[in-house]
Structures are given as C-alpha cells and as structure tokens.
Specification:
Layout (H helix, E strand, L loop, with lengths): L2 H9 L3 H12 L3 H24 L9 E7 L5 H14 L4 E7 L17 H4 L4 E7 L11 H10 L4 E7 L4 H5 L5 E7 L11 H5 L3 E5 L6 H15 L14 E3 L8 H13 L3 H32 L5 H10 L4 H11 L5
Parallel strand pairs: 1-4, 1-5, 2-3, 2-4, 5-6, 6-7
Helix pairs in contact: 1-2, 1-3, 2-6, 3-6
Bound molecules: guanosine-5'-diphosphate.
Length: 337
C-alpha cells in the first residue's frame, strides 16, 4: 500500500481515500498495522502543521463534538438537522456513528435503519457508521484515529454519535473537544437511569422532542436537569455553566437558544486555551491507550496462550480467583513477583 499517495488523496478531500483510511486503521490484520501506523504518523504531522499555521490564537482548527444519549433519544435526527444547518453555512461535516453491534450476535442494530437521510445526500457531509466491536458500546478502539482522519480530509466539524449505555461515554468525552448529552423528556424520572458520570462528562445537555405532546414533559425534564446541574462542581472552562435546553429535532423549537448558547461559548476568551489544553492532555492519554494496546497485541502474538483453558475452567468452577489466575499467568511468563 502506498501510504503517501493515500495521505495525499485524503488531504485533497477524496471521500474514497477517507473511507479507505478509516478501514485501514480499523483493520485487525497484522499486515495492515504497519501501514496504519505510518499513515497516522503522517496525519498527525499534517494536523500539527495546520495548527501551527492557523491564524491567531482564536483559531481552534476544527471542532469535534460527541453526541451521546440513550437509544431513541433522537441523536441521529438531531445530527441530521444540526449537520444540514452547518453545511448550509459553509461547513464540512463528518459524522462517525458508533454502531453498537451486539457482542453476542455480531450483528448491528443500525444496519436496517436509514439514518441522517438529508445530511447523507449532501456532498459537504461524510457519514461513517463504525462497529463498536468488543468495546461494549461507547467508542471503538480507533475512534480517535478516525476523528483525526476526518479532520485531515478537511472536515472542520466532526460529530461522534454514541449510545449512552454505560460508563463508556466518559471515554468518548476524552476524544473530543465538546460533549453534548441528548435526552428526551420524561417527567418524574430520576435522571432517567442515566449514570451521574455521564451527566458530569457533558458540556451541554439537551432535552429533545420538545414538540406537540412531548413539549410539557421535555420542559419539565429540562428544568429538573438545569437545577441538578447547578449542584455539580464548576466546569473546567471558567465562565461556562453547563446549560440544559429543551429542543425539537423535527420542529423549530429551541434552536434559537441552541445557537445563542454556542455563540456565547465561542465568545468566551478562555475557550481557545481550554481547547488547546484539553487536546494536549488527550494526546497524552491517547499515547497511554495506544501503548497498552500495542503491548498487549505484541505480547499475545509472541507468547503462548496454552494453559488458558485450564485457567478458565478453574475460574468458572471457583477454584481460582481472577487475581490468582493473573498471578499464575504472570508466573508462567516469568514475571518477578
Ligand atoms: P437515536 O436512537 O437516539 O439516534 O434516535 P433517532 O434519531 O433514531 O430517533 C428515534 C425516534 O424519535 C425516531 O422515530 C425519530 O423520528 C423520533 N424523533 C427524533 N427526534 C424527535 C423530535 O425532536 N421530536 C419528535 N416528536 N420525535 C423525534
């Protein structure tokens, strides 16, 4: 594979090159790993170069935002409407929809659903469903790489859609600039079973479906969250209070407030520094994540896993505790105690 050619096509915004590049970094084949690493090194160099050329401190060079929330809250519908609004104003929008493939069946629940139809028909938009595979929902092992590939391909806005099924959404907030939690109105429900950690990781909360009969429950839920959020520790971006707005993704309700809030955010003089620092920390955590992954892959390809079956049955029958099994294994591999 000619990685330099692929990079060149990618930077020229060729959709096929972007699709190929994401497939390459998602590949688990050993022979793709070298090309994928080489590509990501070049992509990072390109993005860093762009960053240094960016004019003025206010230029934060691309905007990446996660949209998390429970299934059915309206994430795809919201992204469709938001995306159209953005491309109509000259932006190029990429959407990475993390497909919560069922670990048991290996199947996908999104496959049969036509999503983001309006946005999908626009040349300025790119939509990519990615199977979440074995990572239980939130993000794939290479979501960060896919985000960077979209930025390198000239998409100035990258939206990552994930299902709010568990703690994984805390991880997605470590990959993007901004995390938006999308809920739907349902009155009388204590945080709708949404884990506190997910709400804490949100930079903004929207209660969707504030239209028709849904208007009352949505505004009630919005008020509930607004007061719950006021009790949370202050946001790390000084001057920012996590807002909660009621919105409709099918009607024109709440969008004025949404854009006003985004405008207020962009007007915060401390925003560029906050984003720069956040991205800097994310580079460090990406390094740690990649190193663990690489070590594990290297180790499993070069060390025998024989004896695993016995260990696993001892674990199942309760003869060994997981901690004992780990220490047995480390002994076999010759680790010091
Ligand atoms: P997702 O699973 O979070 O991506 O949710 P979808 O975007 O697929 O939406 C789930 C259902 O809610 C679909 O039938 C949508 O048409 C509907 N829906 C989404 N947003 C709204 C909204 O703002 N108002 C109303 N009334 N229905 C909505």
């Amino acid at each position: 594979m000619n990685v330099h050619q692929l990079l060149e096509d990618l930077i020229h915004g060729e959709r096929l090159a972007l699709a190929k590049s994401i497939t390459l970094v998602e590949s688990r084949k050993a022979e793709d790993r070298v090309a994928s690493t080489e590509l990501m090194i070049l992509v990072d160099k390109h993005l860093q170069g762009k960053l240094h050329k960016a004019s003025g401190d206010q230029d934060i060079n691309g905007w990446t935002m996660a949209i998390t929330g429970p299934p059915g809250a309206g994430k795809s519908t919201f992204i469709d409407k938001l995306g159209i609004h953005l491309v109509d104003r000259g932006h190029r929008v990429a959407v990475l929809a993390i497909d919560p493939s069922s670990a048991r069946s290996g199947g996908s629940i999104l496959g049969d659903k036509t999503r983001m139809q309006q946005l999908a028909s626009r040349d300025e938009a790119y939509i990519r469903p990615s199977p979440s595979g074995a990572t239980h929902g939130g993000t794939t092992a290479v979501t960060k790489e896919a985000i960077d590939l979209c930025l390198a391909a000239g998409y100035d806005t990258v939206l990552v859609e994930t299902v709010g099924v568990g703690q994984n959404e805390i991880a997605v907030s470590d990959l993007v600039d901004w995390t938006l939690l999308l809920l739907m109105g349902r009155s009388g429900d204590d945080l709708q079973g949404i884990k506190r950690g997910i709400v804490e990781a949100a930079d903004m909360v929207l209660v969707n479906k504030a239209d028709g009969e849904g208007y009352e429950p949505a505004t009630e839920t919005q008020r509930y969250y607004q007061s719950a959020l006021s009790l949370f520790p202050p946001h790390t971006l000084s001057g920012w209070k996590v807002p909660c707005l009621a919105i409709s993704s099918v009607q024109d309700v709440g969008w004025d407030s949404y854009w006003r809030t985004m405008k207020d955010l962009n007007a915060l003089p401390q925003l560029p520094d906050w984003i720069h620092n956040k991205r800097a920390s994310q580079r460090v955590s990406t390094f740690h994540r990649m190193l663990s992954k690489a070590l594990l892959e290297h180790w499993s390809s070069s060390h025998s896993t024989s004896g695993y079956d016995d260990l696993e049955s001892a674990l199942r029958s309760g003869q060994l505790s997981p901690a004992q099994a780990v220490s047995e294994r480390l002994k076999v591999w010759g680790f010091p105690k």
